[in-house]
Amino acid sequence: MIKTENLTKIFRTEDVETTALDKVNISVRDGEFVAIMGPSGCGKSTLLNILGLLDNPSEGNYEFNSTEVAKYKEKQRTRMRKGNIGFIFQSFNLIDQLNVYENVELPLVYLKYGTKKRKQMVREVLERMNISHRMNHFPQQLSGGQQQRVAIARAIISNPGLLLADEPTGNLDSQNGQEVMKLLLELNKAGTTIVMVTHSQRDASYAHRVVNLFDGRVVTEQVKSAMPKVVMEG
Ligand code: ADP
Ligand code: MG
To answer: How many C-beta atoms surround the C-beta of residue 95 within 10 A?
Structure first.
């Protein structure tokens, strides 16, 4: 599903040059659940953004679903993302002017689904995320845990084969964090490939594999288990 070769990202500002990623090689197979760990500033978000086709690498190759996309222009990346990739941001990234229903519906509008189908799909995913009763609320009227559930609903509504999550439990209390992890595991069990950045050893323990980054490089890869764990504690 994913294969990078010497993926490099250099950020250049007026007089500073930061090598955020330095020749990163990672591959993720269909159906895998991979966790990415490493200290703050080591390049985790930069890597996830490139894997999610939100940004381009400066150098190197990126094969997504057997297509070389490293040199894709923004328009091509957007087209490739649609329906294929769901992205969960640490800070939720909901649109303040839209209510819960409209935030979640947005990807389906972009995908040109008809009104009736959209309504059915939005209602289904809101039920699943246990947030239907807040359908007409705006993001600022929701708790952090509720906002994250809405953000996840938006990320999964088009049933993407790849789900990327940047510290999805980072802004949540432990109970909400556990619920999010449980949901990610369910999605993975149902076939969604997941790459998740996390600071939490516990969250990472649910992944098949942990990739450790340090200073823009992959330093170690641990295979946790051949199959994802499904039992949650606490
Ligand atoms: P992490 O997610 O692991 O905390 P990031 O991927 O956000 O790390 O950042 C990696 C490095 O790249 C940091 O040194 C950060 O300051 C730098 N960086 C990230 N995004 C930008 C940007 N848009 N412009 C300049 N530097 C950036
Ligand atoms: Mg980050």
So the answer is: 12
